[in-house]
Design a protein that fits this description.
Blueprint: E1 8-12, H1 16-27, E2 31-36, H2 44-47, E3 51-52, H3 54-61, H4 65-85, E4 97-100, H5 104-114, E5 119-121, H6 123-129, E6 140-143, E7 147-148, H7 151-164, E8 168-171, E9 174-178, E10 181-184, E11 189-191, E12 194-197, E13 216-226, E14 235-238, E15 241-246, E16 249-253, E17 257-258, H8 267-280, E18 290-298, E19 305-308, E20 314-318, H9 324-339, H10 348-351, H11 355-360
Parallel strand pairs: 1-2, 1-12, 2-8, 4-14, 12-20
Antiparallel strand pairs: 3-7, 4-6, 5-6, 9-10, 10-11, 13-16, 13-17, 13-18, 14-15, 15-16, 19-20
Length: 361
């Protein structure tokens, strides 16, 4: 039996955004059902490196101070959310990120321009943070505000927390939503006050909200040394890509291939990323990694669509580009404000899903 203030919400998408929204909404007393066609972790969020990089994302994209603050605010939300849910992380964010290379002083100038925290460190100090790292005669830059999560462990923790709060996790495919009724591919019908579209690339759901037409795909490829390399420590960034430790071994990535929506593996990409891993960690020289590919979505301005759609009862939380894990706490709080008819945050206009239609009008 629902309370008068309780809403019934169906979430389409079980990745970082959908799972985090499910937990946050359930904690506020709402009845939540999360629907995803794939098992837990069998999505782009599950294969991701789990980086939370407010500083490096803003610095390397040439973003404004406002966008850096946007990223940083969401990053800080993870610390409290993990603690409140009892989701222990070996390297609780922020765990730091390190830029490697002789251009570290030039990178420091970019951090200065944005006002992001950093400190220049020696190669020896970088090697102490990442045992096994080969970095002869080179400076490095430590960004203490960045961090990472273990994607699969976090998804599993969010599902467990959600189940304790009454969230129903349903493996299936949503095909239609109207008049408060969601219809699944198998013919099952569910009533809901709101539909939250939180799928990574919601192409199959495009008919549910006109704003989804503004999203375009981005393919990302990485390689993973299963069970090998450092399992803890900071993410390492270079001009050739990144290397991040996970609980299952070292991950190297990642490409940003705009306009591609396939998950076919490119042997040349895998070769390049494998070479980076072996150069950084010579102990991996005789080992072949596993290659992976996933597809994400981005809006024309690179920022997500978060807020009510023109379609009645539909709320969007899509288009996270490569920052789904980073933005999940802030997006979930924003979604909860809309569901509860509360004032959204100061980021509402920036994230408004209808901003592109307004601009064209």
């Amino acid at each position: 039996m629902t309370r008068p203030s309780q809403k019934t919400i169906i979430i389409a998408g079980g990745g970082a955004i959908g799972a985090t929204c499910a937990v946050v909404l359930a904690r506020k007393g709402h009845a939540v059902t999360l629907i995803d066609p794939s098992p837990l972790g069998h999505n782009t969020s599950g294969m991701a490196a789990g980086m939370l990089a407010p500083a490096f994302e803003a610095v390397m994209d040439g973003s404004s101070l406002a966008i850096f603050e946007f990223y940083l605010e969401s990053m800080k939300g993870w610390a409290s959310l993990l603690a409140e849910l009892g989701l222990a992380q070996r390297d609780a964010p922020p765990s730091g990120a390190v830029w490697l290379g002789e251009d570290a002083p030039a990178m420091a100038a970019r951090f200065d321009a944005l006002g992001a925290d950093y400190r220049l460190i020696t190669a020896k100090a970088a090697q102490a943070l990442a045992p096994g790292l080969c970095l002869p005669r080179s400076d490095a830059l430590l960004a203490p505000q960045d961090g990472r999560l273990d994607p699969l462990a976090t998804l599993a923790g969010l599902q467990s927390a959600g189940e304790r709060l009454g969230v129903v996790f349903h493996q299936g495919r949503l095909v239609r939503y109207d008049a408060g009724r969601a219809v699944l591919a198998d013919g099952q019908v569910m009533a809901a006050d709101y539909l939250l579209v939180a799928a990574g690339l919601p192409r199959a759901l495009a008919s549910l909200a006109p704003e989804l037409s503004h999203l375009s795909p981005i393919k990302g490829q990485l390689v993973h040394f299963d069970g090998l390399g450092p399992s803890t420590g900071p993410t390492l960034r270079t001009s050739r890509g990144y290397a991040t430790p996970t609980g299952r071994g070292l991950a190297l990535g990642a490409t940003m291939e705009a306009g591609l929506d396939d998950t076919e593996l490119d042997a040349e990409v895998a070769k390049r990323l494998t070479a980076l891993g072996r150069d950084l960690f010579p102990a991996l020289t005789a080992v072949s990694p596993m290659a992976k590919a996933g597809v994400r979505a981005a809006s024309p301005d690179g920022l997500p669509l978060v807020g009510p759609s023109q379609a009645p009862g539909v709320i969007l939380a899509c288009g996270m580009r490569r920052n789904g894990w980073l933005l999940a706490p802030l997006v979930a709080a924003q979604v909860a404000a809309y569901v509860q008819s509360e004032d959204p945050s100061s980021w509402a206009a920036v994230l408004n899903p209808q901003r592109f239609d307004t601009a064209q009008g």
